[in-house]
Amino acid sequence: MNFLMRDPVIQGSSMAYHPFIPHRSPEFAMSAMLGHQPPFFPALALPPSGSLSLPGALGKPIMDQLMGVADTGLHFPTLGHQAAAAHLRPLKTLEPEEEVEDDPKVQLEGKELWELFHKRGTEMVITKSGRRMFPPFKVRCTGLDKKAKYILLMDIVSADDCRYKFHNSRWMVAGKADPEMPKRLYFHPDSPATGEQWMSKVVNFHKMKLTNNISDKHGFVSSTHTILNSMHKYQPRFHIARTNDVHKLYHCTFRTYVFPETDFIAVTAYQNDKITQLKIDHNPFAKGFRDTGNGRREKRKQLALQSMRSYEEQVKRENGASDDSSGEQPSFKCYGQASSPAVSTVGPPHLKDFCDSDEDSDDESKDGLPKDGPDSSKISTTTEDGKDHEASPVKAHPFSSSSDSGSRVRESGHKTEKSQADSRQSPVTIISSTTRSAEDLKSPGLQDPPPKADECRSISKDSFVPLSVQTDSGHMGHGHLHNFGFPTGLTGQQFFNHLGGAHPFLLHPGQFNMGGAFSNMAAGMGPLLAAVSTGGVSTMDTTSMTSPTQSLAGAAGLPFHLQQHVLASQGLAMSPFGSLFPYPYTYMAAAAAAQSAASSSVHRHPFLNAVRPRLRYSPYPLPSMTVPDSTLLTTAMPSMAGGGVEVKGDGMVVPVSPVSGVTLDSTSEVTSHSSSLSPKTCAEKDAANELQSIQRLVSGLDSSQDRSRSGSP
DNA sequence: TCTCACACCTTTGAAGTGG
DNA sequence: CCACTTCAAAGGTGTGAGA
């Protein structure tokens, strides 16, 4: 065990100063042998070829670990999550950086659309080639230090450990979740940028794609793709890292924001017509499927109507005029239902009803979101391409002038917005990630969410308040990270835990999806990149970094499993749930020890329960973690050693420095949002669904009839 | 339940045109 | 040289058949 740390080569390598060197533990080996499923841990597997060449310092340990895993016959994703329970060893203590205090607030953009999406069923299509998120995940940031540089990123983590099925027009739990896919961090392409830049625009992550394919035929997976399991529930998370260097991602002030309304169930094919219609109505690329238009859908419907009429006429001729009085023939009714599943319950809301973010950081018009929404006035000018400016406000959506249904939706949307606290006003939660272990955040009552409860939960978010988590690493210094470079080819993977984890953001460099960003960061990764590149694992040499898309841009250069392995071998901190800690090692280790002592106490942190009771943060029981070298807890980061969190009376949890005795961040606070998450009753939901079904049926018939009348007088 | 080919659509950028 | 238009390619989308 701990071969990594004992390897002098490693110690002397570019990784020498890396504070987070994972140690393989007996639990890991045992778990691997038992074939425990790793909900969060990255895959460790040999490349298809079976051959792997890694250079110098990193090569040996990587290969050792790799072969060790390979010997077990384990390949992704069959590693035990215990593997992530790495014991970290601080190698160097750094001086904190000077920073100007900031107080970031994050507001979800397009909240109305998200809420409508959520009310209708929370389905998100994933395909082998990857599909964009819809609704697009966009946020607006405020309270940033204008001059400081930030890296903005997001990831998608499991919301629970259940597999779902769509049965009787509703989502039900269908069993235990499949093994977690290797997760990734998606870096906003504009990262890093100053706070002023971030605040001047809507931060859009629409370029991120969702897939169920762990790799393409070549064994790669695009850097922009996040791998999900179909029929599983996921929760996107947004992160703000106050740093301009990806090297420091673990050592900077790190905040995590969760918007409960953005969770979704990944599907490979739509199950719920309501969601289909919602997306058709609001996504310009699906314009051809809209009922109101000249698209294929309309043509098909018209053809069907014509055939239906001819059939009706034939029936009339055969049966006489006995039923002429009935305006609605049963057959027509049936058709109306069957052919127009898309007819929305309350009428398809217009884009403008939802889109208040016409000036997203990226080309937003393609998102098909409303550009002249009610909030458009508050949209500030983007610092990016001007097309964003011209695109949206002026460009009216083709359907923006349609029915009044939009106003209805808008109305409800506003109501919802009223009911919920503005996310900007929500206190920023700052807690120690070590305290946010998996099941800490789950409500006791939801540990094993019964299907019913879960169903209700999925649509019972009357008000959504972002949950935010801030971690302060103690600002480890530059020098410390000097050699902490990420191989260019290793930038695609991340192995995150459940949201449940809410875990300290356990980040693995190789899991980064930089999506073209960080080209400037590449320069700083030279040493390690060069070190790793010689092995020919992939194009990891520094020269390759000239192209962001080939270097930091993503995982294109390395199979994800290999990336993950290399990443793991690099000694990045991995929580018991596979996420990465932004904390100094000792801080985490201390907490880990405490957790271990408490024996799965990780599930029961009162604060975390309060923060987000609806989520299960760790469906997988934690084995008691061993701390092979207890001295590690106090060596490197004395200021953090023994540091923990101070739980305030109102649920606020603040990381406390044991040395200073003061909170690490004055803004640290946690506010319980449990009340805002209180679900509707199932009865209410059912009633609402029933009403919606009726409305939909009626409106569908009406619209169909109207169209048929107008279409063929 | 998933995959694939397909038609339809938007977006993008190069090429062409005119002042 | 600039602004504008045109056009083709790329890419995003749901559908429906088939596995």
Reading off the top of the CATH hierarchy, the class of the domain at 105-285 is best stated as Mainly Beta
Low-confidence stretches: 1-97, 320-462, 474-510, 515-713
CATH homolog superfamily of the domain at 105-285: Transcription factor, T-box
Q: How many strand elements?
A: 18
- Write down the Rg: 26 Å
> What is the CA-CA span between the terminal residues?
81 Å
Helix-strand makeup class = alpha+beta
Second CATH tier, the architecture of the domain at 105-285: Sandwich
Instruction: Report mean pLDDT, rounded to a whole number.
Output: 49
Helix content: 25-40%
Beta-strand content bin: 5-15%
* Shape annotation: elongated
The CATH topology of the domain at 105-285 is Immunoglobulin-like
Total DSSP helices = 20
- Give a quick account of the main beta sheet: strands, pairing sense, barrel closure: 10 strands, mixed
Subcellular location: Nucleus
Keywords: DNA-binding, Nucleus, Transcription, Transcription regulation
Organism: Cynoglossus semilaevis (Tongue sole)
Domain T-box: 108-291
